[in-house]
Specification:
The structure is a homodimer of 423-residue chains. Chain A has helices at 10-14, 23-40, 184-192, 231-241, 256-263, 283-291, 324-342, 393-397, and strands at residues 45-49, 62-63, 73-74, 78-81, 95-103, 117-121, 133-136, 140-143, 149-152, 162-163, 174-176, 197-201, 205-210, 215-216, 227-228, 245-247, 269-273, 293-297, 301-302, 308-312, 315-320, 352-358, 362-363, 369-377, 380-383, 400-404, 410-411, 416-421. The first copy, chain A, is of the alpha/beta class and 423 residues long.
């Protein structure tokens, strides 16, 4: 597939796509790229401080080189002793014990416990040498003449109320596997084995090029025949949601050299918003076809049919329609999937799905996939009565969307449907 | 409730809690604080750039002061004309039209369209004066002698393939309501009406004070009887997950003046990790009781029973046990709930719940709530065979947890249970 620039074939190009790929065929190309990447050049990694690692994707197994804890410790406040010293103790048969010192967390008792002796311990304190149990403070009566005398009111068995060295983590244990999206408690475990840094998959760098001479930059007020860029802020937030790092230096003119420069940016992924169709001002597909590979252009779906993607060297390139609903939908189907995959995350949508009952039918032709925005009212799913790909506010009024596959004519009123919830 | 400092009552304090609040009573106190806050001093707000607003909580309604689009526009590539000019056109009855110019997005046709005339338009371009429909490029035959002559191959009806001014957003519409957690597409809509900034609820500032003389800072290697802080990195990540801003300047010595300084930090919430029980080194509850209000201390749950909370002036203060599983659980039940509420977010856990079938029974005494870590294997829910609150690795091996309420003796093997999934 190859396009020439403006001129004789303008009219052909204005006639629309000669044929459209199915969504499945488009996804198959995309997923094959990921496989190729993983084989040809494993996903790049980086080492970052643990404090920044929440939500990042672990790149390599973490094996502990220490026991946690590194010593036997008390798991209750009380008295460390030899369990035998309490044998037969009850509230009526109190057994006297001599308190020979304290063991506090980080500051152990120096010395050894013999029969009839006890060391006062706090939870977490190292067990003194010789002791094999902790008698909880609740089971002790104290007479604090100096030195303190205590009496055991109950017996404990050996090993009671203490934790052994390595009870949390044994040296050599694989703590976490590659691909793990790091949870808060994972950071705690990594910290406890002495890992101040962690090796994670590098976040994909995404160059966002928003084109359209009719656009004013976000922050401007709409004026005259100029509209304010909605896709830049929206796509930036989507890319970040999916773990990408956004490079969005500003709007790009509808000019071949400006667009080509963006297509050749130092990035893992380039997303061009706008000018993705086959009209005379749709420059990006022509440029990708000429300087790289335009693998997919035109997809049998609504909205987002004028979507393209391919490669420019090592970069994956996505050409998203300028209409903002199309842009959102095409991002979620294709570009977001690639960004998530490159970053080692699950390819699936990061949306939660629920089941609901349609209150009105949805019709859709065979051969085209439809993305239908819906509102949820209790158990009922209400398709919004707007079709236009330009109506971005439909995606803020909607609670989510229903997908009608290209092998389906839609759903009758009352059908159970799966709804993907925006979040 | 009032504690005195170390001395005569050490032994009483080592005996454990005289009584424990139920989780419900503890939550009732906490939720009453939020209500009180909301009445006494509405949640503080701040204005931030739109580009940083994804995931933030909107503080005020946003009303559009413009129509979007601000003009009628083409929704297809083709020819803008008076629909009547195409009346009767078919592939066999071609009707000639004179092309009198172009209208491009942001660069309208200057002039007016009369019967028999057409203006070439791109999707999104302003409709020329006089035109009331767009004839798609696919329905046109072109002869490009100069000037171009085109023929309509089909008829269009008035209003076809064009969008009216305000079709996306009508001036005066309430776009988004307060409390909305801003989605990527919300940023797009806000941008399109000219909002470069957005008023959001301020993120709660949380001072994190991790105490324990036995602790080494995260990043150190465990050594001798010192263990490395796990709670600091874990709690920092949890606080950020819940929308808080973490102030964690480093470990705090088990020293009354150091802990008091943290309790009086410039913050909305203070979290003290460690030293929360009733032992002789448990300083924080005594300090809160003396200098503020220790409303809850000791909760009928496992783990996390030695949890306390209250107020120091305007600050909500949480005293979390040093044992890391207790710390996680107490954070999720209490501190996280307060942080989410202060930031305008739903109080509920940010965990997804699923149903599963227990493969072994869970026993729990009446009067105590239990937090049971479980693994998921298909549909089966497997309680982990570890009880200890010190075994943080149990929360990384687990996929989630099951709650046994204090009115329940647990669940029989084969029961359907609700599992909250860690994420």
């Amino acid at each position: 597939m190859r396009h020439t620039s403006k001129g004789a074939d303008d009219d052909v190009r204005m006639r629309g796509f000669a044929q459209r790929d199915t969504v499945a065929a488009a996804l198959a190309w995309l997923d094959a790229q990921d496989v190729q990447d993983a084989q040809a050049r494993p996903l790049a990694t980086e080492t970052i401080p643990l404090r920044n690692a929440a939500g990042r994707v672990l790149a390599a197994s973490v094996v502990s080189d220490v026991d946690v804890p590194g010593f036997d410790r008390a798991t209750m406040d009380g008295y460390a002793l030899i369990a035998d010293s309490t044998e037969g103790a009850t509230a009526y048969t109190r057994l006297p014990l001599s308190v020979i010192g304290d063991s506090m967390p980080g500051s152990p008792f120096v010395g050894s416990v013999s029969a009839g002796e006890a060391v006062r311990v706090m939870t977490g304190a190292p067990m003194p040498r010789g002791a094999d149990a902790v008698l909880p403070a609740e089971w002790v009566e104290t007479e604090c003449t100096s030195p303190c005398k205590i009496s055991a009111l109950a017996a404990v068995s050996p090993g009671k109320n203490m934790g052994r060295r390595g009870e949390d983590i044994v040296r050599g244990t694989i703590l976490l596997e590659p691909g793990r999206i790091l949870r808060p408690q994972d950071l705690g475990v990594l910290s406890s084995v002495g890992q101040g840094e962690v090796r994670v998959i590098r976040r994909p760098r995404v160059r966002l090029a928003v084109t359209g001479n009719e656009l004013l930059p976000s922050g401007a007020h709409p004026s005259g025949f100029h509209i304010v860029d909605a896709n830049g802020p929206m796509l930036s937030a989507l890319i970040e949601r999916d773990g990408g790092i956004v490079d969005f230096p500003g709007l790009v003119r509808d000019d071949p050299s400006a667009i080509l420069e963006a297509l050749q940016a130092d990035a893992d992924v380039v997303i061009v918003s706008g000018g993705s169709s086959v009209g005379i001002e749709d420059l990006a597909p022509v440029l990708v076809a000429r300087h790289g590979e335009l693998a997919v252009h035109g997809i049998a779906m609504r909205p987002s049919s004028p979507t393209g993607f391919g490669r420019m060297g090592n970069r994956l390139v996505f050409l998203l329609p300028g209409n903002p609903v199309s842009s959102l939908c095409a991002y979620d189907f294709f570009a977001g999937r690639a960004i998530r995959a490159l970053g080692g995350r699950p390819k699936e949508w990061p949306y939660r799905a629920i089941q609901g009952k349609l209150n009105r039918k949805i019709s859709s032709p065979i051969g085209r996939l439809d993305y239908v925005r819906v509102k949820i009212d209790g158990d009922l799913v209400d398709p919004l009565a707007v079709g236009g790909a330009s109506i971005l506010s439909s995606t803020t009024r909607a609670d989510g969307f229903v997908i009608v596959g290209d092998d389906s004519e839609g759903f009758a009123a009352g059908s159970d449907v799966k709804v993907w919830l925006y979040a």
